Amino acid sequence: MDENVIRVENLVKYFDGRCVLDGINLKVPQGCIYGLLGRNAAGKTTIIRILLGLEPPTRGQTFLLGAESMNLSATVHGQIGYVAEGHNLIQNYKVGRLVKLCKALSPQWNDEFFNHLTETFRLPMGRKVRELSIGMRAKLNLSLAMAIEPELLILDDPTLGLDTVARRQFLELAIDVIQKQGRTILFSSHILGDVERIADRIGIIAAGKLVVDCGLEELKERVKKLRLIFPESVPANLYLTEIINQQSEGREMVITVVNWNQQKQALIDVFKPSSCTEIPMSLEDIFIECTKPEPMPITS
Amino acid sequence: MFTLIKREIEDHIAYFIGAVILSGILIALSTLLAFHNYDSPNAPVLSIGLWIPAIIVLMIGLPGMGVSQMYTDRNRRISAFLSTLPVTRSRILAARIITGILAILTFLVPLTITAMILLRIFAPAGSIYSIYFSIYSSFIFDIFWAVFLMSFACYCLGLQTGWTSSRITPTLGGMALTFVLVPLIFVKGFGLHIVVILLLFIIASLTRTWHRFTSTSL
Fold first, then answer.
1. What is the C-alpha to C-alpha distance for residues B96 and B206, in angstroms, rounded to an integer?
2. With an 8 Å Cβ cutoff, is B84 touching chain A?
């Protein structure tokens, strides 16, 4: 089998003539926890749906566990746990019936683990799915996805609708899965703190393109936000390449630069700033900078 | 596959109950007719009077079942959930079609068995009427296949037109095509030619449904 559990090759998707994904290339190796980020309607869910064979691509190919997405066999499906955005479950079924159905269809179902999850989440087996709150549905969906002991876990905004305690429980469960060697997770979320906590590689989609695709630490290393204070006014001819954001006021200039290195430092030193301090950036700050119009690609 | 078929049956149990009730009514009326009017000159008219309402119910019920399976699936996104489990779209559709066939057989098999039993009663082996048994049993066999294929074709139309989010298209489209399809039997009669026509229709309809179901977004 290919060492890349997820492979996306030149993926293009149009909806009603509107380009949502524009030539996405992505590889997720085995054991990686990949955080897929993007603003609303950036195309994160579309990528996940195409990967799972729920949506046909306009162009390009996607592979999961070495199999082409539109032709995934039942065996490959059995190795993938999926928590859908909005928790797409059969609404008119009782929880117990839905669980029974999933159990009957999944050869690797772990009853002991599932019972542990239902006790942890206090899932009401006798109630209909549509009567559950969004948070309860999220917990049910997560429990169903975890119970099959998946090789690959795909989580599309799984913590949406969960309270702080449930979110923490979820993250602990995810970490539990990660600790089982070789498991891969593709994790899309709006809560960047969650992604920052568990992901070891980050992808950011903006304007239909994958503008960031590198390790989390590497990303933090490569994107720098600097506050420069010059003795007089800000020099007009300070031309740095790969600036993704720049703000000047009087003697002060704040710049966000990609691929920060010694050459760039030397270029700034030419203008003799009185001070040059680095402003620490969280993943959220980097995300905001990278999703501005005309984003700068950051890939390893 | 068994789990998927079981799920389809449980979700559409009303159609199976309907098939049992309709079959039961027809069996009761046929038996009464056979024992009380078998030598009456009005017997053929009464038989047709029995079958026409039954065929109309089939013409409405079976496309209705196909439409219901596909329409509820699409709008409740059942296959979107099922296909994230260890199941392929082809298996989901195959389970659905097998469920349709089972519903048709639930209606037809008891009727056919009743017809054969009545025929045996009225043409017992060793009697002078026994010659009618072989003639009419092959006729019953032809009717069984023709009605089975007609019912299945109506059901396939329902499957084909039901995969939509609009309520009008499946209802009107399915009904219109069914009302064109069923009179074929009355025009062509029972026999090999109608079997071939219906088989071709079923293959075309199922191919189209399979192609749409396996390639569309869920």
1. 12
2. yes
The verdict on a CB contact (< 8 Å) between A75 and B86 is yes
3-state secondary structure of A296: coil
Reply yes or no on whether the pLDDT at B154 is more than 90: no
Cβ pair B76:A91 closer than 8 A:
yes
Answer whether residue B129 shows pLDDT above 70: no
Q: Is residue A293 domain-resident? A: no
Mutate to test the interface with A, among B84, B92, B215, B217 (most CBs of A within 10 A): B84
Question: Which helix (H) or strand (E) covers residue B22, if one does?
Answer: helix B13-37
Say whether both A148 and A187 belong to one domain.
yes
Does residue A152 belong to any structural domain of this protein? yes
Q: With an 8 Å Cβ cutoff, are B4 and A90 in contact?
A: no
Residues A19 and A71 in one domain: yes
Q: Is A49 on the interface with B (CB under 8 A)?
A: yes
Domain range list for chain B: 2-215
Phi, psi of B4 (to 5 degrees): -65, -40
Asked whether the predicted pLDDT for residue A109 surpasses 80, the reply is: yes
Q: How far is A103 from chain B (nearest CA, A)?
A: 10
* Range(s) of the domain holding residue A242: 224-280
Tell me whether residues A77 and B217 touch, CB distance under 8 A.
no
DSSP secondary structure letters along B39-79: TSTTHHHHHHHHHHHHHHHHHHHHHHHHHHHHHHHHHHTHH
Distance CA A215, CA A199 (A): 9
- In this complex, which of A56, A89, A107 lies closest to B81 when CB atoms are compared? A89
A206 and A249 both lie in a single domain: no
Residue A193 sits in the same domain as residue A251: no
- Given A182, A215, A248, the domain boundary residue is A215
Examine the domain organization and report whether A108 and A43 are in the same domain. yes
Q: What is the pLDDT of residues B76-90, one digit of tens each?
A: 888 888 888 888 889
Query: Residue A267 falls within a domain, yes or no?
Result: yes
CA distance A66 to A69: 9
Identify the bridge partners of residue A24 per DSSP, sorted by sequence position: A11
A36 and A169 housed in the same domain? yes
Within 8 A of A72 by CB-CB distance, chain B residues are: 88
Which pLDDT band, with edges at 50, 70 and 90, does A193 fall under? confident
Closest CB to B86 among A53, A90, A105:
A105
Cα gap B86→B90, rounded to integer Å: 12
Residue A297 resides in a domain:
no
Strands A59-64 and A67-68: antiparallel
ipTM of the complex: 0.78
- Chain B partners within 8 Å of A70 (Cβ): 215
Query: Choosing among B7, B85, B211, B215, which should be mutated to test the A contact, i.e. which has the most A CBs within 10 A?
Result: B85
